Amino acid sequence: MIAGYLSRLKDTLAMLKKEAQLADLSFPEMLWQTSKFCLKTRLGPRYFVVAGMARKNFKEADKWQHISAREYYHALDKLNPPLYRKLTQSKLSEKALYQLLHIPTAQMLGYFHPINGVTESGATLTTAGALEQLLKQHAGSMVMLKPLEGFGGVGVLAIAITYSGDELQLQSVGEQKSYNAEQLVNFYRRKNQHPEFMLEAYIRQSAQFASFNPSSLNTLRLWVLETAPDQAEVIGGYLRIGRAGKVIDNASAGGIMCPVALATGELQPGLIKKTPHRDDICQHPDHAAPLAGVILEQWPQIKQFAEKVLIALPHTRFAGLDITMTGHQAPLLIESNVAPDKDGAAHGNIPSIKLKRVARKHNVKQY
After folding, report:
1. Cβ atoms < 10 Å from Cβ of 90
2. What does the pLDDT look like over 150-202, one tens digit per residue?
3. Do residues 45 and 73 share a domain?
4. For labeling, which of 169, 230, 337, 338 is most exposed (least CB within 10 Å)?
């Protein structure tokens, strides 16, 4: 126990020493700033480093706009009643909800399940043979396969479909691996559980979003908060960009996160999750595509779209919305995260204290 504590202390001090060098601070000054922040906010030293709070360009007042994990989840319980969170945490009910509320999202093609599987048209989708027939209908295009629940892009496949003669060819774009329908079913098979997954139409993103990294669907993670009845506000966000050859943009898969200036839509220097230190990435490390300084097209439209989506979601007063821009220059909702990781506030310098303030208001009802 003592050895573990000493090891963690050693790692923390090494992290702070390196951050002091990057921030051009003395080590004693780094220790003082970090201790002051941790004591006042009840957040840890890693959060302080990830947010880049010791850097010269970080405003002192912004340090005190972040709340502890305890405060964050307490506010979250008031804003988003836990009983309703499964509505969007299961992709099946999430898609049904978006369709009912007419929220623009990727077209659902089917739900595979050995007993309850069904296509969008109402045909059964319970066997590998039925799956093959559905995929044949989309020959010459790509479809997305996703598990019903999960995070970090785990289990997501982008399948390119070709059909020549009597042969159906299925190629996973990211893995460059060939499958047949039976192998796809087995990919989603879990011990003592039926295999199940969703099929969605592949999204063609806008030219600008594709320019950041063509192989991945690049998305904005926007924190949106209902500040008054039927009024919402985007309080912060960042653009997530995948790595070369990857299909997903998740930071856990090595993706880049570029905070967005709320007033202008200008991308700020990016960071990655593998290190707590902000690398200030200004261009894509794999192919040098410009990132920092780029102004997102249709930024006011994107913010308005995000705010309207939050207002439409039942019993949801705060969410991390994943949004992309399509080739038709229209925003599209990928998914809603009704309990986003609090560290997202550190990645995007998002004032999480606003959640605490809104949760205190009398207009927040208890369920």
Report:
1. 14
2. 777 778 899 999 987 778 899 998 778 899 999 999 999 887 789 999 999 99
3. no
4. 230
Domain carrying residue 30 = 2-65
**What pLDDT score does 126 carry?**
96
Residue recorded with tokens 């309207």 = 308
Backbone angles phi, psi at 207, to 5 degrees: -60, -40
Distance from the first to the final alpha carbon of the chain: 42
Distance of CA 276 to the CA centre of its chain: 18
Give the residue from 167, 201, 235 where a domain finishes. Answer: 201
Q: What percent of the chain has pLDDT over 90?
A: 78
| DSSP letter assigned to residue 112 | E
Q: What is the pLDDT of residues 254-287, one digit of tens each?
A: 899 999 999 999 999 999 998 999 999 999 999 9
In Å, what is the CA distance from 258 to each residue of 6, 91, 174, 261?
Answer: 34, 26, 23, 10
Q: Which helix (H) or strand (E) holds 227?
A: strand 219-228
> Is the same domain home to 223 and 308?
yes
In this structure, how many other beta carbons lie within 10 angstroms of the beta carbon of residue 226?
21
Q: Six-digit token pair at 179?
A: 């499958």
Mean pLDDT check: name the lowest of 179-183, 189-193, 229-233, 345-349.
189-193
Q: Does 144 lie in the same domain as 9? A: no
pLDDT of residue 127: 96
CB neighbour list of residue 206: distance below 8 Å, 6 or more residues apart:
297, 324, 325, 326, 327, 329
- Rounded to two decimals, what is the model's pTM? 0.92
- Please count the CA atoms within 13 angstroms of the CA of 296 that sit on its side-chain side: 32
CB 246 within 8 A of CB 239: no
